[in-house]
Amino acid sequence: MSDLLRIEGLVVQFGGVTALDGVSFSVREGQICALIGPNGAGKTTAFNAISRLVRPADGQIRFAEHDLLGLEAADLSGLGIARTFQNLALWPGMTVLENVMVGRYARGRVGFAASLLGRPARVEDREVRARAYAMLDYFGIADVAHRDCEGLPFGTLKRVELARALVAQPRLLLLDEPAGGLAHGDVRELGETLMKLRDDHDMTLLLVEHHMQFVMGISDYVVALDLGRNLVAGNPAELRDSPELVEAYLGAPV
Ligand SMILES: Nc1ncnc2c1ncn2[C@@H]1O[C@H](COP(=O)(O)OP(=O)(O)OP(=O)(O)O)[C@@H](O)[C@H]1O
Known about the structure:
Residues 5-252 form the ABC transporter domain. The structure is a single chain. Helices cover 37% and strands 24% of the residues. The protein is an alpha/beta fold. It folds into two domains: 1-80 and 170-254, P-loop containing nucleotide triphosphate hydrolases (Rossmann fold, 3-Layer(aba) Sandwich), CATH 3.40.50.300; 90-169, no CATH class. Helix 3 (96-105) packs parallel to helix 6. The longest helix has 18 residues, at 184-201. The N and C termini lie far apart (43 Å). Bound molecules: adenosine-5'-triphosphate (ATP). Adenosine-5'-triphosphate is lined by residues 14, 17, 19, 37, 39-45.
């Protein structure tokens, strides 16, 4: 398997704070890769740099044959990159189905706003609707398709967000703390869903996550950062007893 995403020497600064100081790692096609590390390690900053939401001072980000730093955030969906957010970024006042459809329109040619303004439905609209329904069905939440997102349980909203990211049929899915705030049973179910997604659709997943048991249970490759630098990387079995990792999380032994 070849590298789908390659990060080299990434440097990100916020004023006087160096959030990333030369971080490098690669994610292979079809892998589930987790970015871990203690608070302030730089995980979210790395994620936001890949999503083109922060501008690195130095380094390279390559996705397949593309140089991502030469592109805007709005271009990513068209390349096959989708992401979810730590704090759900769903539209209140829109139904679950509409929220999921937005994900596909980000990649399609027909503007969602235009379709809301009452243009006659095109073939693509019907296809998008059918695909959005299929995704809701996949996540077992088709019964709430026409409900307003507001007021639905958190676990359901997490699935809606995942369905929205997937409806664009991405090649790379970026998940920002997908297990955050979920109950124990929901975390296990999410893990099974993500592994099934990878297997069924040959998708590549990069996630930022604090839930260590979840990470170690589903990841093929784990990249640990600390203080904006690479700490250790390897498969879960290699990292489980890593003294560097234990020290970074618990502080230096006295
Ligand atoms: N917008 C910003 N302005 C200033 N400093 C920032 C900004 N965003 C992040 N930082 C700093 O950059 C460093 C890395 O933060 P980042 O949020 O990427 O870490 P993280 O590993 O995601 O942490 P957490 O697990 O707590 O979310 C921290 O020192 C943080 O305070």
